[in-house]
Design a protein that fits this description.
about 20% strand; alpha/beta; single chain; nine-stranded mixed sheet; 16 helices; globular; 15 strands
């Protein structure tokens, strides 16, 4: 079950590797930068160019001043609406990139921008034949939740990138840590063996994920993990869960006679206007006193938020072979959930340091014969332990429960495997260890550095993006016509 980061012998002489980093937001600061520093000497890593918005100038300088890995050059893009939409590369930047590529050996680019800009950088990188490490989602078209054409563009964008990749030498990695997570790999391998042995498909996959993100009413204009561009939770942490479903569903592919060839989806959602009316101004006054939230409600116009993205998404679907249901799916993705935020002013770290914590469960059935459950529940923010406990509520909590109809199929009737605590013990001497999920990200990053194959390469995300596109199409259709049911071919 152990999934090791693949590294070369320390004593092998390393060729210097040069990278471009696009975006130094909260995720890049917490994940990519520390891991690049961890492997800086081993791989001779140089950060040739850092690209960010001009509005982040002071933020960048404050962050890199104390880092061992410093960018050789920083390029700041004018922060305007045109550049935020990410439709074209800034001309001066494009000239800069072309000059670097023509005169130097660049080993790869890390794309960690707001997702509207992902595609333009990926297009350029594939044309330049350099490797790509990119945050999810692959693309995020504006107004996906209200415009059917935008929703369909999620998958058409993927197909366009797929065509371009066929003419490129680039390896393309998407950072989706569950594909390289020790616990999830164990579960998928277990299911692969079970389904192959008994020739019974996975009949149900239920995924629940909440991240306790609490944005106060006046904070919905932010650029990081935004809602104002017409997408939300699904393009935030929700992508991981849709991808997890698609990845686990691959298990059924071994059954040629019961492989799904169509799907149907129903959706429901909870959006900012719903949230603004869930708590009253009296609630906020009780919690925080008289604040600018009162000013927000005095000027609140519901119409201004009608096209904002989802805070929560509820997806019920079935995959069929002709008229027969093969697998039923329930994917519940929430941000309007339990949080530890108890303060009004935003902290410096709004990514993991604003009361956010994760509750996650996965429930998988193989008809009447096997049930596998995954439970992972935190009671405090990452790195902010305020209670001494193990198991449920601990930052490292990740348990797998396995139930078997052992009188028919043999084996143990029940088994519990605690993966999170085990991984913590394995990595006690690693000062860069951030947790079991982050270990999966590290594995993908090292495979990117070493040009290795990886479970989360671009080619493996086709079904994920087809599902994501259809989920948003369901929501957009409901917005336009009131009917969220859609059917599609696989």
């Amino acid at each position: 079950m152990k999934n090791e980061v693949l590294i070369r012998d320390d004593e092998k002489k390393q060729i210097q590797k040069q990278y471009i980093l696009v975006g130094l937001g909260p995720h890049a600061k917490r994940i990519y930068y520390p891991f690049l520093e961890k492997y800086q000497n081993r791989y001779g890593i140089k950060l040739r160019l850092l690209i960010e918005l001009d509005s982040q100038r002071d933020n960048i300088q404050g962050f890199i001043s104390s880092r061992s890995l410093k960018p050789e050059e920083i390029f700041l893009i004018e922060d305007n609406a045109k550049n935020r939409l990410g439709r074209f590369l800034d001309k001066i930047l494009l000239n800069k990139l072309e000059n670097i590529i023509n005169n130097e050996k660049i080993d790869g680019i890390i794309i960690s921008t707001e997702p509207k800009s992902h595609k333009i950088y990926a297009d350029w990188a594939m044309k330049s034949n350099i490797n790509i490490l990119m945050d999810k989602p692959i693309t995020a078209p504006v107004d996906s939740i209200t415009n059917p054409n935008s929703a369909m563009k999620i998958f058409s964008n993927y197909q366009d990138l797929k065509r371009k990749k066929q003419d490129s030498d680039s390896k393309f990695y998407i950072v989706c840590q569950r594909r390289n997570h020790e616990g999830f790999i164990f579960v998928k391998d277990y299911l692969l063996k079970f389904v192959e042995e008994f020739q019974i498909p996975i009949s149900y996959i239920g995924i629940y994920h909440s991240d306790g993100t609490w944005n106060l009413p006046h904070e919905f204009e932010k650029e990081n993990h935004p809602y104002k561009y017409g997408y939300g939770k699904l393009m935030h942490s929700g992508y991981h869960c849709v991808d997890l479903f698609a990845w686990i569903l691959e298990v059924n592919n071994s059954l040629k006679d019961r492989r799904a060839n169509s799907g149907k989806i129903y959706t429901s959602k909870f959006r900012p206007n719903d949230f603004f009316n869930q708590l009253s101004i009296e609630n906020y006054k009780k919690f925080f006193g008289s604040t600018e939230i009162q000013k927000f409600y005095e000027n609140y116009d519901r119409n201004e938020y009608e096209k904002y993205g989802e805070i929560d998404a509820y997806i019920l679907g079935q995959l069929l072979q002709n008229q027969n249901v093969i697998t039923t799916a329930s994917i519940i993705l929430q941000q309007n959930t339990f949080s530890r935020r108890s303060w009004f002013d935003l902290p410096e770290d709004t990514y993991k340091g604003n009361g956010r914590l994760r509750h996650e469960r996965v429930n998988i059935h193989v008809s009447q014969f096997l049930n596998i459950q995954i439970h992972s529940y935190q009671s405090y923010e990452a790195g902010h332990k305020d209670i001494d406990l193990e198991g449920v509520g601990n930052e490292d909590h990740f348990d797998i429960y396995i139930f078997r109809n052992n009188k028919i199929i043999g084996g143990k009737s029940f088994e519990k495997i605690s993966v999170g605590e085990s991984m913590k013990k394995q990595n006690l001497n690693d000062e860069h260890y951030l947790g079991h999920n982050e270990k999966g990200r590290e594995i993908t990053l090292v495979n990117f550095l070493e040009n290795n194959c990886d479970n989360s390469e671009f080619e493996n995300h086709e079904l994920t993006n087809k599902l994501l596109s259809n989920i948003y199409l369901s929501m957009a259709n409901e917005f336009c016509s009131g009917n969220s049911k859609i059917t599609f071919n696989l």
